[in-house]
Specification:
This is SPW repeat protein. InterPro entries: SPW (IPR005530). Keywords: Membrane, Plasmid, Transmembrane, Transmembrane helix. It holds the Pfam family SPW. There is one protein chain. With 139 residues, the protein is mainly alpha-helical. It has one domain. The chain has four helices and no strands. Helix 2 packs antiparallel against helix 3 and helix 3 packs antiparallel against helix 4. The longest helix is centred in the C-terminal third of the chain and has 34 residues. It is elongated, with a radius of gyration of 17 Å. The N terminus is likely disordered.
């Protein structure tokens, strides 16, 4: 049957909306990246990188939060995308030379937010994949 594995046979694939907090944190990390780009002095490359990365994290986190709040499984592809965006965010200070800023704030902010998004996105994708398999076996 080609039905949605999240709702096949009336089975609740994600009771209680498990994983919403992970998606919310990823979205908040994106919001923080946008805010810090506006609030702090960055080079033009850093600024646009942080705004675009922040918007992507906000969109991915918001999308998976919406799915999980609707008691559906989080999207594995969206979670993996968050992990990849986090990986880029860890590498981007070396590409854009964020260590050259006055306090190095932009460098450490990008590295720490990137590591957080990488870990949360990878964990979310891993758990989503295992839950999807469990749902497919019981449905």
């Amino acid at each position: 049957m080609g039905g949605d594995p999240d709702t096949t046979g009336g089975y609740d694939a994600n009771p209680g909306g498990r994983g919403k907090w992970i998606s919310a944190i990823i979205g908040l990390l994106g919001l923080w990246m946008i805010l810090q780009a506006v609030l702090f002095e960055l080079t033009p490359g850093q600024f646009w990188n942080d705004v675009i990365v922040g918007a992507l994290l906000l969109a991915v986190g918001g999308y998976n939060y919406y799915r999980r709040a609707d008691e559906r499984l989080g999207n594995i592809g969206a979670a993996a995308l968050a992990a990849l965006i986090g990986l880029w965010l860890v590498a981007s200070p070396f590409v854009f030379g964020a260590g050259d800023t006055a306090s190095g704030f932009a460098f450490w902010n990008d590295v720490l937010v990137g590591l957080s998004a990488l870990v949360l996105g990878a964990y979310s994708a891993y758990k989503g994949r295992s839950r999807r398999r469990a749902t497919a076996r019981t449905a």
